[in-house]
Amino acid sequence: MIKAVRGTRDLLPPDTGLWNFVEQKVREVFARYNFQEIRTPVFESTELFARGVGEETDIVSKEMFTWEDKARAASEKTLSLTLRPENTAGVVRAYIEHNLEKTGLLQKLYYIGPQFRRERPQKGRYRQFYQIGAEVLGPATAGSELPIRDAEVVEMLTALLDAVGLKGWTLYLNSVGCPQCRPAYNEALRVALADVKDKMCGDCQRRAETNPLRVLDCKVPEDQPYIEALPKIADYLDEGCRQHFSEVRAILDTLAVPYTVNPRMVRGLDYYSRTTFEFTHGELGAQSAVLGGGRYDGLSEQLGGPQAPGIGFAIGEDRLVLALQAQQAVAVSPLKAFVAPLGAGTNRHALKLARELRAAGVAVDVGDESFRLKKSFETAEKLGAAYVVLVGENEIASDAFAVKELKSGQQTTVARGALAEFLGR
Ligand code: HAM
């Protein structure tokens, strides 16, 4: 038997109903906040992620699906390509490639789609997973650097999670400084690590030299006491970063968005500057981060583009759906009615009625005239229909239909013209 590849999975009904519900709700919220959709390719040049996300990150150094795409003609080059492990680098590449800075406006873009990382699969962690993300970026003259943008993005996230019905999340907030103040922090980390790095894992030993901030991503349990004792970034922020962060917090306070400052949270990608955040959820166990994001003011220049400060986030849709399933709070709109033809020659009348009901916006399914009444009711029940509509000889002759509500067992006769409204109530 051929099975889905390790770390990938099929999403089947009825679960896909919840995925559709989530995507529909977030699209509504994005529209209210004036975000528009962007779709970028699922694979890009490897270089984009190496330069954008950072060579020393776990994502780039261990987790990418990369292959060599052989030239097929003299006019082509052999390329190193990678399935996107995240979508921010792709969005910024598109921003640069299409000269979106020419509009002079903030670009408010969202995306929904698969991402790929070769991580060790477990509950809430897959090699193909889905993100719902958004990015706000543009020239500084459009206000892209200002704390109000950070606060608005975080506040929108609370609206997104509300709209899908997720309760019980925790928001962690931090500032990771900027290229002006980060070197001093990196130096402090390097000095502190010099004494202990020999007792730490190979990754930490290497990163202590190449990119000390990434030591904070280490998950090796034996290394944690050393990491706990390292200097904290909050003590190294320069005046600009300190003020920016305090303004973001002041706006969130005014909006009554609850958060906890977590000075250890540096996020696993190199492009962040200043504000970073994560929302966690208790139902998710070890993979508790339901979403993460932050500001990436230098990323566009890093990729060869114009100055384009930005901030964004990505929700792990797999994890959001798991958390919603755990709290069982969401009722996904069920099938309204099962139309049951009764006896020879009734199929075409049943399908005609179903066609009218569907055209009127009512979700219905149809049985078959070979079904006994009992089988029609059993099928309707299994499908989760609210009503069964009987289409027998009498109904056809009188143009009024026996309608049975499955939950209460109540039966009524409803005229054809009134049926859609009756079922749609
Ligand atoms: P990230 O923290 O790497 O950030 O991923 C965001 C979210 O994607 C995580 O919080 C998690 O819910 C989900 N996720 C990540 N890896 C997996 C996996 N293997 N299986 C299931 N879910 C996963 C980013 O990707 C940034 N691009 C976010 C961002 C946008 N920052 C600024 N703009």
What does this 3D model show about the protein?
The structure is a single chain. The relative contact order is 0.12. This protein has an 8-stranded mixed sheet with strand order 1-5-6-11-10-9-7-8, sandwiched between helices. Strands 13-12-14-15-16 form a 5-stranded mixed sheet, sandwiched between helices. Helix 1 (15-32) runs antiparallel to helix 5 (147-164) and helix 5 packs parallel to helix 9 (239-254). The protein is elongated and about 90 Å long. It has helices spanning 15-32, 46-52, 58-62, 88-97, 147-164, 182-196, 202-210, 224-228, 239-254, 299-302, 317-327, 347-359, 373-383, 393-398, 416-424, and strands at 36-37, 43-45, 66-69, 79-83, 107-116, 128-137, 169-175, 260-261, 275-281, 289-295, 310-316, 337-341, 364-366, 387-391, 400-405, 411-415. It starts with 14 loop residues before the first helix and ends with a helix. The chain folds into 2 domains: 15-181 and 237-326, 2-Layer Sandwich (BirA Bifunctional Protein, domain 2); 337-424, Anticodon-binding domain (Rossmann fold, 3-Layer(aba) Sandwich). It is built from 15 helices and 16 strands. The protein is of the alpha+beta class and 425 residues long. Strand 12 (337-341), helix 12 and strand 13 form a beta-alpha-beta unit. The longest helix has 18 residues, at 15-32. The structure holds histidyl-adenosine monophosphate.
